[in-house]
Amino acid sequence: MKRRSPTALKASQRNRRAFTLIELMVAIVIILILLGLLIPAIGAVRLRAQQSQVRAEISSLEAAITAFKADFGMDPPSGIVLHESGSATWSQRDKNLIRKLWPQFDFSLDKDINGDGDALDNDITLNAGECLVFFLGGVYEKTADGTFRVYGFSKNPAQPFLNPGSSVAALSATNSSRRGPYFEFDNSRFVDTDGDIAPEYLDSFPGQQKPYLYFSSYDGRGYRDSELPVLLGFKSVYREGSSAHGSTPGIPYKAKTYQIISPGADFQYGVGGNYDPDKNFPGPQPPTYLDDRTVEADNITNFVSGSLK
Sign of the C-alpha dihedral, residues 108, 109, 112, 114? Predict the structure, then answer.
């Protein structure tokens, strides 16, 4: 085989020119531009997947509410004050709700609803998110590691709030005589945002800080303003009509059933109220500049497929 001379080899090496600094910089810029286009697209795909997961979970919550209604004849209430002491005085409204759910309920008996071993606690006031957990999950306890567990309701018609606690023996003895839980809660997503030892439930968005909201229309009798979590800034259930500030309140969505609301990926509910699917949510308006409805665009509910916008 004929070998190339050293002189010819050096000439060939000189002809293979290396990249110049400018060419390298151009290549890097092109790569950065492509990454700039790709990363938002990946983020959008991830967000859509997370939204789909939450929407599927809301559908599962709806199925759980349907199962609850099949057993008790009504959707879960979204506001109630429970009393553990048998000597406590119940409001007539709350007493009527309990009687409708459990006609033979014995109000004179002590009840350990929150599983702390003390049946003489102060009143247990359940708000919108807490009612969702309580009526779908049942009596509960806060365990030693700070998480909550739910145990359904006893089938004893006079004492549905019998709490088995975390004892394995107690649970084994009572599981066959209990109703619920109606929903398979992930214990790691229970929270207690108001510190009253009554759990609420977070959606599956990573890092979520605000729980699901739940509002009952009480089978079409009407949503109750007194059950709105005004401390969280949410002032109204969602209604049909123009979403512009100052618009006349319209007919509520799901007027005969209930609304379930996730705060979405930004962890903010907004203020609620009229919702027009064809319009953008308005920003804050003078003079207060407080009611910024743009944060509601990513809320996920049971009356719209996907997010609100």
Answer: negative
